[in-house]
Write a structure and sequence with these properties.
Elements: H1 3-26, H2 34-54, H3 63-81
Helix pairs in contact: 1-2, 1-3, 2-3
């Protein structure tokens, strides 16, 4: 594991944090459980992004990116649930 890997992982978590926060704040929940809805939406968006990278030059899909994106959305959801902002 290189330092670049951890930097990319941390950056992906931070970049998806607003997604989770804003989805819950906007009330865009298709499922009864709000956090599960956020996780499913982040997973779908992240898988779409990674699928698009298959056809893009100089980009490589990664399961670590999907995991970090979902974790970031969950972090944003937890921040919303705690009513910190």
């Amino acid at each position: 594991m290189s330092q670049d890997f951890f930097m990319d992982f941390f950056a992906n978590v931070l970049l998806f944090t607003p997604f989770g926060y804003l989805q819950l704040r906007a009330g865009l929940n298709l499922l009864r459980r709000e956090m599960l809805s956020t996780v499913v939406a982040a997973l779908a968006l992240s898988l779409g992004i990674e699928f698009a990278q298959v056809y893009t030059h100089n980009r490589f899909p990664s399961t670590a990116d999907v995991l970090s994106n979902v974790m970031g959305a969950m972090l944003g959801g937890f921040v919303y649930r705690l009513k910190l902002f």
